[in-house]
Amino acid sequence: MSSAEIQAPAGRHAAEREPQHTWWLVAVWLVLSLAACLVIWFVWYPHLPPGDMTTSARHQQFDIAVLAVSAAPVILGVWLYFGYVLVAFRAKPGDDSDGAPIFGNTKVSATWIIGTSVIVLWLFVFGTIELIGPAGAGAGEGASPIWKLSGNQTAAWTPGANDMLQVQVIGQQWTWSYRYPQFGGMESTVLDLPVNTPITFHVTSLDVIHSFWPYLLGVKADANPLVDNVAYTTARQTGSFIVRCNELCGIWHGAMTSNGNVMSQTAFKVWATAVQLRERANGTLAALPPYSLTYDPTVIPQLGKDLVKVVGVTGAPGYYYGPGNPVTP
Amino acid sequence: MSVTARAAALIVAFLCVAGLGAFVAVYYIGSASQLPTVQYTASGGQVNVALQEDPGNNSTTSPDWVTYYTQDPTTKQWLHTTLFSVPAHTKVNVTIYGYDGCTPLRNNFWGQVQGTLGNTVTVQQFDKNNHRLGPSTTTSLINSWASCSVAHTFAIPEIGLYVPVASPNANNSVNNLCGTYPCTPTSGGAYSLETFSFMSPGQTGSYRWQCLIPCGGGFINGNGGPMQTLGWMGGFMNVVSA
């Protein structure tokens, strides 16, 4: 006896009183998906991380909302089908027969291929647009960024002139400092920024790999020694934020944080000028190395010579200790 | 490879990883918990903290590592710990004896005094015979790239405190450093005496402090050894209720 002969009576019997599974599932799925998408868009979206403090953060918030709206129907479809199958197609007691074969079902195959293709293509197109539109989406683009933020490239920064503010982010075990080349190359332990101003971050490190992550700004860029990693954003709201390191960098990695503020352009100008004047007056500006996109941690330009380097090991004691004594002073 | 051999290899690998994890936990967490915390109490609304940094130490495990010591305010003994507590919202007067030789700052920005009252420190140099070398100076910058002048730093980033710690001058850094640890002013080494004050935060809790000079000599980029080990070049200032 063939398997078809065994299943045929049961199949005919079932077909006589089978409800319209597909249409019922589709109807419920549409209702649930619509409800979920509305909740995501109107209830969750305004509260999704990382907020909307900057253009890049706002785009990331939008991206997460769109992806959640895209994913919700898929997840609901899977859950709904799974639950429906458990109830509607549960085997009766004593019924050990196989289900109807679906191999070669053109409708199922076409639905699967078209559906997944649409989803993948949509993610590709949306992701590409959202990467290019906000100039790299707040991520580090390396030393030669492809997608640049528009703004005036000026030697001095002026409020209200759409001048691009250059900020160099320097990671070192285990703290951050920030240089402002348009303010005499002054350096600060606080990352203060003007609102409504295009900002270029030049991220680098003086030792190991760190990751510059001002979460609320929607910016994240690795800080590599001898590398200038560029990221862009534009702050849209005033307020405070915290900078964290997002790359395991040693014992105090978890405590490698600093504070930042987005303030009005006028207030920023006042702050930056005051720091510049103070550091000029106390000699700090003169003591700093010339502004550069990267710094060789084994070289001190003012000393005119390299620090001690012994077969890949840089002696911390610097040039005051000779190569014959690399271990301890 | 047979199933038995593979199972044995898997068990051995698991035990190695588990053993390594246990070792790390005991070595770091266990040793950290053994460090004493020096309690500083306020008098007249102020508290006096005394630290010293030495080119070596009196431990048996790593006698050639640079390190900080903390002075017990009662016994005046120097304890090999970097944990101390101060009352909240109190003026903290810090004295640091700098017995270690000079080291250029990797980022000379840390030569700027930040976060102290007045954003300055006062430095007095002494020779190996404990005689003053010139008058004391009050400054807001110690430029380690201009001269041999900085040994380490004392930084509590969370409250914006960054202090370069002065070193003996170039000649003394090379020839006249203390060799018996913990050093004392009469132990035969030149030193700097640096003082400054800052306000402890109003919020109680543990505030990390560290040296920002990568002074782990012999380790890659100078950031290993004493820089990565609690109780040497970094620790915690515990702020307690006043």
Write the layout of secondary structure elements.
The complex is a heterodimer of chains A (329) and B (242).
Chain A: H1 3-17, H2 21-44, H3 55-88, H4 106-132, E1 165-172, E2 175-180, E3 186-188, E4 191-194, E5 198-205, E6 210-214, E7 221-223, E8 229-234, E9 239-245, E10 257-263, H5 265-281, H6 284-287, E11 299-300, E12 305-306, E13 309-310, E14 313-314
Parallel strand pairs in A: 1-5, 4-10
Antiparallel strand pairs in A: 1-2, 2-3, 5-8, 6-7, 6-9, 9-10, 11-12, 13-14
Chain B: H1 3-33, E1 37-39, E2 46-54, E3 67-71, E4 78-79, E5 83-87, E6 91-98, E7 121-126, E8 132-139, E9 150-156, E10 161-166, H2 170-175, E11 191-199, E12 205-210, E13 234-240
Parallel strand pairs in B: 1-5, 2-6, 5-13
Antiparallel strand pairs in B: 2-3, 3-4, 6-11, 7-8, 7-11, 9-10, 12-13
What's a quick, concise take on this entry?
The complex is a heterodimer of chains A (329) and B (242). Chain A has 329 residues and is an alpha+beta fold.
